[in-house]
Structure formats: C-alpha cells, structure tokens
Amino acid sequence: MTLEFRKLHPLFAAEVSALDLRDVHDEGNLERIRAGMDEHAVLVFRDQAFSSEEQRDFATRLDGELHRKTGISVLQKSRFGDEAITDVSNVDASGEVLESDSRKRLYGLANRLWHTDASFQDPRGRYSMLAAVALPPVAADTEFADMRAAYDALADETKAKLEGLRVHHSIAYSRITLGFDFSEEESDQLKGAIQPMVLENPRTGRRSLYLASHASRILDRPIPDGRLLLRDLMEHATAPEFVYRHSWRRGDFVIWDNRATMHRARPFEDTRHRREMRRVTTLDIGDPARIAQAV
Questions:
Q1: How many CB atoms lie under 10 A from the CB of residue 33?
Q2: pLDDT of residue 99
C-alpha cells in the first residue's frame, strides 16, 4: 500500500490517504507513518472507527509503551478502565454534559492553553493520538504550532542562549495559573519533570523548541527575567505563520509529535454541546520502530 500525504499547511501537518488503521499491522506501513510524522509532525486520518481498545492497540503497534500517569488520573479513574485512554470530553461517566462547576470541567479548561502532552512526566510524551467520537454542531477546533519552524526562525544569538537550558514542567503549575485548586495529596503526585529547552529528533536531526504552559521556570544557570523569556518564546512560537487550525469531523484521528508541536483546544459552549474525544499518548523512549516491535 502506498500512503500519500496532502499538506494542510505550508510548514507542517498533512492529511493521509484513506486507510483503516485498525488493519495496519505490517511494519512497512507503520514505518511510513513514522516517516510521515518526522516530516509533517501532525497527521490527519479520516473516517476511523476505533473502539477504545483498538485505538490503544494501534498506538502500541506504532510507537510502543503508553503514557499512563496522566494528570487527570490523580483526580479520578478513567471511565474506560485503562489509564492509557485519556477522556478528553465534556461528559461524565454516564455520558451527560458536565455542569459548569464540575471539577473535571474546570481541570480540562487548561487544555485551551498551549501545551505539550506529558511534558510533566519523565519520560515525556512522544506521539499523541486523538479520536473524534462525538462532535458538537458548532466549531470546536484544535490549533497546532510547529515548534521546529519556530526554532529555525530564531536569531543565531537566541539559539546560542537557549543551548543547554533545562526547564521544569508541571501540569499543576499550568492549572494553578487558571485558579484550579489541588489538594495536598494531589499536589504530591504532580511534582513535574525537568526537560531540555531544545529537543532534537534523533531520526532526522531536526531541532525544535520544547515549550508549554506547563513550563514553570528555567533551571541550571541564572537567566535574567527567565519567566519573561519563556513568555516571549511562547509568543514567538505561536505566531500565525507557525499555526495550523484543525476543524474536526466525526471519525477524524489525528496524530501529533509532542516533541515538535504544541497544541490547544479552542473554546465552544461546552456546558451546552456534547463533545467526546479519546486520546492515547506514547512515551518518548528509544527508537519508535524498535520499541514498537518489542512490545
């Protein structure tokens, strides 16, 4: 099978030719998808019909070990019975739309901030895979920012300044900025992780900024106005020329590389309209082809 990639943005993101990912088991096509991720960083597959288990199994075939220490799991257990399947929805366990003061809803509002999945864990997240199960009758888009192009566009002097810097990432930090309150027990489970400011894809050698709303402070050496530097870099990286906006269709399945992109959900009337999305994220451990084959 020959996969074709149609560009959705001048810099990144592509729609992949029709295929049912539930049937993709051969290493040849899995490696073509990985190569597509290396090039485009965001891939859109249409008309997928995954069950939660099939989505999880495909993610494992493609990229190996799954991320199970999600932030929301500190608040409540997955309604799917597997912490690898993240419920990115505005419904409760019975399928009813969440009330405006629901703790799950208030926690999820931070998805509207620019972020990278599982940057607050070690190992961090590599690929995220989000399935559109039920969509509202209004726009409920997701935006992606190309952190590779953002890095390329920096002045050489700025690139040199960022070399070797490490940043503390905390999912609690990003939510506290929006006024979300954690209990002491919850806070103890969300200590965060330390990540490089700049990442390099070992398969391609291409470099990218590694930023997020989870990034709380710069470590290692004194940086004057370090938090302002983080804000300035976030503003630079999310300039319109680096952003692709995805308008969801039911059955869409979008894979993105967290090492090369940031993303955010766009607001809609979430206390009125039902929206169900299910996400699986893999861990950035070793080479994806070898790790997936070993699982």
A1: 24
A2: 95
CA distances from 140 to 9, 116, 117 (A): 19, 19, 19
AA letter at 252: D
What token pair was written down for 240? Answer: 């319109």
- Average the pLDDT over 108-121 and give the result: 93
Task: Check the CA dihedral 87-197-147-258 and report its sign.
Answer: negative
Q: Tokens 């990218």: give the residue.
A: 208
Spell out the residues 6+ positions from residue 210 whose beta carbon is closer than 8 angstroms to its own.
Answer: 116, 119, 147, 167, 195, 196, 197, 198, 199, 259
- Range 162-166 contact pairs with CB under 8 angstroms and sequence separation of 24 or more: 162/197, 162/198, 162/209, 163/198, 164/196, 164/220, 165/196, 165/197, 165/198, 165/218, 165/219, 165/220, 165/221, 165/223, 166/194, 166/195, 166/196, 166/197, 166/218, 166/219, 166/220
Each residue's pLDDT tens digit, 13-32:
999 999 999 999 999 999 99
The pTM of this model reads 0.93
Domains of the chain in start order, with CATH, are 16-265+272-294 (3.60.130.10)
Q: Is the pLDDT of residue 79 over 80?
A: no
Q: What Cα–Cα distance (Å) separates residue 130 from each residue in 125, 231, 250, 281?
A: 14, 27, 12, 9
Report the length, in residues, of the chain: 295
